[in-house]
């Protein structure tokens, strides 16, 4: 299906908006010629390049978005509350009822329960309401030209040009980062996993829900989704925590966690059929927040998005849509850190030799690891999470 805007008035308006925000430079024009040679070498046709390279414009706002830093680091409660709103929950139930036939068909074909597909859909684009309005060609060209992640986005731009060629599209809108469609696939993800579910000769993940659902299901299936396993459970922690066990990346069978005093937060026993599943402990706010034993499917969610908070929210929403969510049992704990707090801690940990990453004010895996190592050296609980005490010790 061709996604050219069919209304002349809308087309003129979009062109005016694009001209207002786009720009070009001699360096960008030179980069286009270099990119042309690379794209030709990687199989993009000369006809496609002749069509689309002249259309590429720089979008300064895209670079600004890529560089933007939040004032505060989002906590577990902030993140979940913002996404699991009553409106989103209600609409999710509505969508479960709207597509029961396709969801069941795809569940049987790919082994991915329908509530997970709807949960991903809800978080990615609010069930298709916010697929993005940025010109994908311009966004990817801008990010491929920008030096910060040039290699990554060059691959994505080449993939996108191949998609435009194979799917006969002329214009696609999506996010500033180059993702598009109901499930916000990047171009390389589309090429690897997109499915023509209704056999009409097109993989339309933008306006066709069977194709969109099937593509998401195929992605999760190829990631190894286990149909008969849950994502995990909220747990109550024992008084004495074996931190070596917590930080062991291999994980341990649920029965071992149970033997060391971990219990379901609801007070119910662990299901017998889960006792041999390998699980790891996730503490999204350290010891001052809820704790979760997570199973292999949780890490398959994280292959979609590497954020633990994202994966937990998808899992919660899926359980809610299935009618199996007991709610979060842990008490709320307001704990907020600014971007500058984290940056200062990174600088101190770097000087002490614990942190070897970029000073970017983000609580990524390297930062969590550095905090954990510092806590261990100081005899503090090794939850890898910032606390007032850690900040006080490191930021004089």
Features:
single chain; 396 residues; alpha+beta; Helicase, Ruva Protein, domain 3; Lysozyme; Muramoyl-pentapeptide Carboxypeptidase, domain 1; 3 domains; five-stranded antiparallel β-sheet; two-stranded antiparallel ribbon; 19 helices; 8% strand; globular; disordered N terminus
Write a structural description.
The chain has 396 residues and is α+β, with helices and mostly antiparallel strands. The chain has three domains: 8-68 and 132-180, Orthogonal Bundle (Helicase, Ruva Protein, domain 3); 70-131 and 209-333, Orthogonal Bundle (Lysozyme); 337-394, Muramoyl-pentapeptide Carboxypeptidase, domain 1. Helices cover 53% and strands 8% of the residues. The chain is built from 19 helices and ten strands. The strands form three sheets. A five-stranded antiparallel β-sheet has the order 5-7-9-4-6. The longest helix is centred in the middle third of the chain and has 18 residues, at 150-167. The N and C termini lie far apart (60 Å). Residues 1-17 have low confidence and may be disordered.
């Amino acid at each position: 299906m061709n996604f050219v805007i069919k209304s002349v008035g809308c087309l003129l308006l979009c062109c005016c908006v694009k001209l207002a925000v786009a720009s070009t430079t001699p360096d960008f024009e030179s980069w286009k010629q270099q990119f042309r040679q690379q794209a030709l070498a990687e199989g993009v046709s000369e006809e496609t390049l002749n069509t689309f390279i002249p259309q590429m414009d720089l979008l300064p706002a895209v670079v600004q978005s890529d560089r933007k830093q939040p004032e505060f680091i989002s906590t577990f409660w902030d993140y979940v509350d913002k996404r699991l709103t009553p409106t989103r929950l209600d609409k999710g139930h509505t969508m479960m009822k709207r597509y029961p036939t396709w969801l069941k068909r795809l569940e049987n074909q790919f082994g991915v329960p329908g509530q997970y597909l709807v949960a991903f859909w809800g978080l990615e684009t609010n069930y298709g309401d916010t697929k993005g309005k940025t010109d994908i060609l311009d966004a990817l060209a801008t990010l491929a030209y920008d030096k910060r992640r040039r290699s990554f986005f060059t691959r994505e731009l080449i993939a996108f040009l191949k998609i435009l060629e194979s799917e006969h599209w002329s214009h696609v809108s999506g996010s500033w980062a180059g993702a598009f469609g109901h499930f916000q696939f990047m171009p390389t993800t589309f090429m690897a996993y997109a499915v023509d579910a209704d056999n009409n000769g097109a993989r339309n993940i933008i306006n066709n829900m069977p194709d969109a659902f099937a593509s998401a299901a195929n992605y999760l299936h190829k990631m190894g989704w286990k149909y008969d396993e849950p994502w995990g459970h909220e747990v109550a922690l024992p008084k004495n925590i074996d931190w070596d066990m917590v930080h062991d990346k291999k994980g341990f069978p649920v029965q071992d966690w149970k033997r060391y005093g971990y219990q379901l937060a609801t007070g119910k026993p662990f299901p017998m059929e889960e006792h041999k599943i390998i699980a790891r402990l996730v503490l999204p706010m350290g010891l001052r927040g809820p704790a979760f034993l997570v199973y292999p499917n949780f890490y398959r969610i994280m292959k979609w998005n590497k954020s633990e908070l994202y994966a937990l929210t998808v899992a919660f929403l899926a359980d809610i849509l299935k009618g199996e969510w007991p709610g979060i049992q842990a008490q709320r704990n307001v704990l907020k850190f600014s971007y500058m707090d984290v940056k200062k801690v990174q600088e101190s940990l770097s000087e002490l030799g614990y942190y070897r990453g970029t000073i970017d004010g983000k609580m990524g895996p390297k930062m969590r690891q550095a905090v954990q190592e510092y806590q261990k050296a100081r005899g503090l609980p090794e939850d890898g999470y910032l606390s007032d005490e850690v900040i006080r010790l490191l930021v004089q």
